[in-house]
Design brief:
Length: about 120
């Protein structure tokens, strides 16, 4: 079943669309945080990789799941360190890192379960 948004975009898989939207949103958020946090390189890497991953998932490229796994490792490490270092001092930052960590795990699990859709 395909859901049509407008006249040109058809979404065949709502879960994969939500996953690619998550990675696109994360990419934009991390690039905005990059400017606000005085340009730390790790935020730029995560932001750019997230945007590329969102494109790969949306277009069902065979390399999309590989980038999801890379972002899983990077995102888990980044979130775990953020949670560890801000625990008890900055609840908003720690909560955001925890939400990012959980959603990264959920999206990675979903993409790996649906990885057959990326084979040609």
């Amino acid at each position: 079943m395909a859901v049509s948004i407008g006249s040109r975009l058809k979404i065949e898989n709502k879960g994969m669309f939500a996953t690619s939207a998550f990675y696109a949103a994360v990419g934009i958020i991390f690039l905005v945080l990059l400017v606000m946090a005085n340009f730390p390189v790790h935020l730029a890497v995560i932001g750019i990789f997230s945007l590329i991953t969102a494109y790969g998932l949306f277009r069902k490229r065979t390399w999309g799941p590989w980038l999801v796994v890379i972002l899983f490792l990077v995102g888990t490490t980044f979130s775990a360190f953020m949670i560890y270092y801000v625990i008890g001092t900055d609840g908003l930052l720690g909560g955001g890192a925890l939400i990012y960590l959980i959603l990264t795990w959920v999206c990675t699990t979903y993409v790996l379960m649906k990885r057959k859709t990326f084979e040609k």
